[in-house]
Amino acid sequence: MRCKWMATPILLVTVGICSVAPAFAGDTAMRLKIGEKAPDFRLKDVMTGKMVTLAEHTGNKVVMLEFWATWCDICKREMPSLVKLYSEWRGKGFELLSIVLPAGNVEDIRKIAREKKLNYPVLLDADLTVATKSYGLAGPIPLKVVIDRKGIVRYTHVGDYPPGEEELPFVIEDLLKETGKGK
Question: How large is the average pLDDT for residues 131-148?
């Protein structure tokens, strides 16, 4: 059964989208909430050395932040799904920025990115400023934060790739349609 993404966590539970998952949209240990402006940041991509900001995408792309760490098995297990998601949506106004929480050395991060064939930026939050101070992350990872073109947090999900690989594409598609762009 295909389920459409709903704007509120209560509706998500009502239609049964997340009946199997331990967590659902809006159920995150993050100070920043749905409907709030996403704070800008500037982090270095460990694969290219390029500095990346959220602001460079605001206004023209829907952005998903993926907070993860090298020690997180769930994070690594879901990476092929994220690679597929990014491949399908990046040319349509979508950007995926992974934000790695520091653990170990940068070469460990690069090794995982190469092994998992990550096709999206891998940004290191070396001092946890973005995760803890800007976004107020105080709970489990992986954490997905989807931000609309206006820079507003519209969806969050903590834990494994959302149930049924259809949820995130619906979220992205709906947000892209808000400005008349999308599939």
Answer: 93
- Cα–Cα distance measured from residue 113 to residue 138, given in angstroms and rounded to the nearest whole number: 25
117 CB-near residues (< 8 Å, 6+ apart): 83
pTM (two decimals)? 0.81
Tens digit of each residue's pLDDT (9 = 90 or more) over 49-98: 999 999 999 999 999 999 999 999 999 999 999 999 999 999 999 999 99
For domain 9-177, the CATH architecture is 3-Layer(aba) Sandwich (3.40)
Domain residue extents for the chain: 9-177
Q: Cα(125)–Cα(138) distance, rounded to whole angstroms? A: 15
Structure confidence at residue 5 (pLDDT)? 36
CA distances from 66 to 61, 75, 76, 83, 130 (A): 16, 9, 12, 12, 12
Give yes or no for a contact between 109 and 100, defined as CB atoms under 8 angstroms apart.
Answer: yes
- Distance CA(55)–CA(127), nearest Å, equals 20
Distances (CA, A) of 34 to 25, 40, 93: 9, 16, 21
